[in-house]
Known about the structure:
- It contains 6 helices and 12 strands.
- By secondary structure, it is an alpha/beta fold.
Amino acid sequence: MNVAGKIVFLWDDPDGVAAAIAGALNPNPNSSLRKLEVPFELPLDKYGIEGVRASGKIIHFVDGNGVFQVPAWLLQSREAPTIVCAMNELLDQITGGVSTASSNGGATFLVAASKLKFQIESLASSNKHSGLYHVQIGPKTGASVLYAARIPRKPPPLLQIHYGPLSCFLQLTNALGLPTSVLIGQRSIGISSKALEEELQVLHETGDAVASSTVQGCVSLRNEIKWNTSKTWKEEEKPWRALYG
């Protein structure tokens, strides 16, 4: 499996946020890069899960010499606890391909503001607009410096995350010691035109940060972001909190 030193992790959420970001990442027309999408499937038998695989697609960016520059791993959404095993298996594959010391990981999550709580008040109930935060896991790397320069805003102190996929990813990358820049975008709870515009702006900023911080010659084409902002999703209560806190 071809794995480059720079890595992007995208959780293919049911609302299509990650897929929209992945679709907008494209080679600069003036570069020699080409985009190559390859499906992947990883068995989960060793976790006692049969008949279900960690699946998704790898979005490679390959230069004119055939060298793989950056893979973006788009992992298909699964319910708990399968998603935990799927994430762990994928991270095992990634860290098995490169040393953690030389890797430059990046990941993005867009989370409902009500799932990000500061002390007793959720960020959704504060007066702050939806925004984008940068969290660094492990030591700084060349890519993490670029991410931090692009998205300098850090989450507020004592932030509580009540969103299972993000909590799980943070715990796993910490345990593996994988240097990773995690971009956490707040998803607004409003349905006004302004709220939807702010949410789309977070998507644009996320795509720009991933493109500019990973590989030279990769850009995020804003007009290529195809995502339905109709707010049809529901914040269902999932068994994440009981499993992972």
